[in-house]
TrEMBL record:
InterPro entries: AAA+_ATPase, ABC_transporter-like_ATP-bd, P-loop_NTPase. This is ABC-2 type transport system ATP-binding protein. Gene3D superfamilies: P-loop containing nucleotide triphosphate hydrolases. Belongs to the ABC transporter superfamily. SMART domains: AAA (SM00382). Keywords: ATP-binding, Nucleotide-binding, Transport. It comes from Thermosporothrix hazakensis.
Length: 239
């Protein structure tokens, strides 16, 4: 595990809440994510993970509390820090008639300063080089997930926010993805994940915040949460 004591804070949430009508999807969530860390939100469906990630991305605005990214408060009037964030959440639907490469070419129009060699680099990185000319309508769910991840990396973000990133990947693909996340973290990229499978999240993350009904009920390293009896040790045995 990484030592966070001397590392910069990339994301800081203070008392973050989001209410829909009379119901809170997220309530009084506070946490810090450090540079080069893989930090996960673990919870069942409806626990508030996607809402919380949406708040970090500015897709939703909090009812109360605040978010700082790269040391700057993110508000409707100040979203500049989000330019350095890549995400697979809230992205436009993939375009069925277009190929994998076409999607990168469309994105390249938004970033004219990025060399098009970046496209081939990312196709290889996410394992889609053999499918570059395949139309999206013919891709499997796992291939689409790989494509979305590659698009999120296009502008070399400093922070990645991903929801259920291994949901459709086969066993070998999950192992490959874990190694890729570790490599990106070593390069200084900070990564935030949402997921519902304890075993998978434990293998991906340095630290986890556990969500129940919109509340963070515990957070810490895997070993810390195990020692408190909040995560069964058997869930994390390699099989």
């Amino acid at each position: 595990m990484k030592d966070n004591t001397q590392r910069d804070s990339i994301v800081e949430a203070i008392g973050l809440s989001r209410r829909f009508g009379k119901c809170y999807a997220v309530k009084e969530a506070s946490f810090v994510v450090h540079a080069g860390e893989v930090f996960g939100f673990l919870g069942e469906q409806g626990a508030g993970k996607t809402t919380l990630l949406g708040l970090l991305l500015g897709l939703l605005w909090p009812t109360a509390g605040m978010v700082r990214i790269f040391g700057e408060a993110v508000t409707p009037g100040h979203t500049a820090p989000l330019r350095h964030v890549g995400s697979t959440i809230g992205m436009p639907s993939l375009l069925s008639p277009f190929s994998v490469r076409d999607h990168f070419l469309l994105l390249a129009h938004l970033y004219p300063d990025i060399a098009q060699t970046r496209i081939d680099e990312l196709l290889e990185l996410v394992g889609l080089q053999q499918d570059a000319h395949q139309k999206v309508r013919y891709l499997s769910a796992a291939q689409k997930q790989r494509l979305l991840f590659g698009l999120a990396l296009f502008h070399s973000p400093k922070l990645l926010i991903l929801d259920e990133p291994t949901l459709y990947l086969e066993s070998a693909g999950k192992q490959e993805f874990r190694q890729l996340l570790q490599r990106l973290a070593r390069q200084g990229i900070t990564i935030i994940l949402g997921g519902h499978l304890p075993q998978e999240m434990a293998r991906l993350c340095d630290r986890i915040a556990m969500l129940q009904k919109g509340h963070i009920v515990a957070q810490g390293t895997i070993s810390e949460l195990q020692q408190k009896g909040l995560l069964p040790i058997s869930d994390f045995e390699e099989g």
